[in-house]
Amino acid sequence: MNLHTTHDDVRHYYGDVLQSTRDLRTGACCPAEAMPPMLRTLLEDVHPEVKDRFYGCGSPLPPALEGRTVLDLGCGTGRDVYLLSRLVGESGSVIGVDMTTEQLQVATRHQDWHAQRYGYAQSNVRFVEGYIERLAACGVADASVDVVVSNCVLNLSPEKEQVFAEIFRVLKPGGELYFSDVFADRRIPDALRTDPVLLGECLAGALYIEDFRRMLERLGCADARGVSQSPIPLLDPQIEARIGMVGFRSMTMRAFRLPLEDRCEDYGQIASYRGSIAGLPHAFVLDDHHRFETGKPVRVCGNTFDMLAQSRFAAHFDLHGDKRVHFGLFDCSTTPTAAVAAAGACC
Ligand SMILES: C[S@@+](CC[C@H](N)C(=O)[O-])C[C@H]1O[C@@H](n2cnc3c(N)ncnc32)[C@H](O)[C@@H]1O
C-alpha cells in the first residue's frame, strides 16, 4: 500500500467526507447503548459535538485506570480521550494522537469545557497532531505509557506492523494494549485494498485475524486475548456487492508488554479476584473465557497468571504459585471462540 496516498485518502475521508456519525455507510460504529452502564453515565458529560463525530467500533476503555497514563491512537474528536480523562482522574493523564486537523480542531475546542465539567484545576489531556506510525515524533517516549487504547484506527494504517512496534516501544513493561478494531475472516483482495471508500469505512484495511496473531508474535507478543466481538453488517448495498464475500467483526482485544509463552502452560498456579477494582465489585473479565468472580480461586495457565501478576491488576488479585514445577500443557476447561483461539494461545 502506498503510504502517502493511504494517509491522504484516510485524512480526506475523516476531514472532509464525513461530517458526523450518521454519514458512515456500515454498522461498524458501536451504539452508545452497547456500552457498559458505568461508561454510559460518563458519556452524558462528554460534549455533544465531540460525540456527534464519533467513528469508533467499540468501547476500548479498560478498568483500573486511576492515576495512569493512557495513549489513544487515532483519537478523532476525542470521545474516548474525554471518557479516559474521567477514568484516570485528575492525577492521571491522557494523550490523544491523530493526523487529521479537522478532527483535532473539534477535540481541542472542548478541552477546557471538559476540565471544568469534571472539576479539574487544569485539563489532564493533551492532543498531538501526528502519525501513529511515528510516535517518537509525537513526543511519546520509550516505556512511558501504562495503557494504549485505540478505537477503529489500526485497520487504517498502511504500516500496521510499524504501529504495533511503536505500541510495544512506548508501553511500560507490564503495560497493556486494549483496542477495538475491525477484523476480517480472510485477507482482503488486493484489488480492493486501496479503494478510498472501503478504506475509509474501515473495511479494506481490516486485519485478518491470523495475520494479526502472526504480526504480534513477530513483535514478541505471543498471546493476545479477545475480550468481546460482534459482527459488522454492511448496510450499503453497493459496499455489500463489492466486499460482501468477507466477514467483518468488531473485536476488542488486549495484549500486554510481557514475555509470554506461545502456548498456555500449566504450573499449578491460582488467581483469586479481590473485588477491589472501582465499579467491579462482583467480577473481573480478563477476556472472553476468563471471568474471575470475587473471592473464587481459579486455576490459571502461566500466561494468564503473568498478565495478572505483572500488570496493574496485581493489586487486585491474590496470586498463588510460581513456575518452578511444570505440569504440561494447560488443560482448557472452556472452549474459547474460534476467533479468540486464532488470536492467541488458548487456555
Ligand atoms: C474511524 S476514525 C476513529 C476516531 C476515534 N477513535 C473515534 O472513536 O471516534 C479513525 C481516526 O484515525 C485517524 N487516523 C487514521 N490513520 C491514522 C494514522 N496513520 N495516524 C494518525 N491518525 C490516524 C483518522 O484521522 C481518524 O480521526
UniProtKB/TrEMBL annotation:
> The Methyltransferase domain covers which part of the protein?
67-218
MF terms per GO, please?
Answer: methyltransferase activity
- Name the source's superkingdom: Bacteria
Which reaction is catalysed here? arsenic triglutathione + [thioredoxin]-dithiol + S-adenosyl-L-methionine + 2 H2O = methylarsonous acid + [thioredoxin]-disulfide + 3 glutathione + S-adenosyl-L-homocysteine + H(+); arsenic triglutathione + 2 [thioredoxin]-dithiol + 2 S-adenosyl-L-methionine + H2O = dimethylarsinous acid + 2 [thioredoxin]-disulfide + 3 glutathione + 2 S-adenosyl-L-homocysteine + 2 H(+); arsenic triglutathione + 3 [thioredoxin]-dithiol + 3 S-adenosyl-L-methionine = trimethylarsine + 3 [thioredoxin]-disulfide + 3 glutathione + 3 S-adenosyl-L-homocysteine + 3 H(+)
The protein's Enzyme Commission number = 2.1.1.137
**Keywords linked to the UniProt accession:** Methyltransferase, S-adenosyl-L-methionine, Transferase
Q: Which GO terms describe its biological process?
A: methylation
Q: What class of enzyme is it?
A: transferase
rRNA-binding found in the keyword field: no
Keyword Ligase applies: no
Membrane spanning stretches: none
Looking up CDD domains in the UniProt record yields: AdoMet_MTases (cd02440)
What the entry lists under InterPro entries is as follows:
Arsenite_MeTrfase-like, Methyltranfer_dom, SAM-dependent_MTases_sf
Q: Which family does it belong to?
A: Belongs to the methyltransferase superfamily. Arsenite methyltransferase family.
Q: What is this protein called?
A: Arsenite methyltransferase
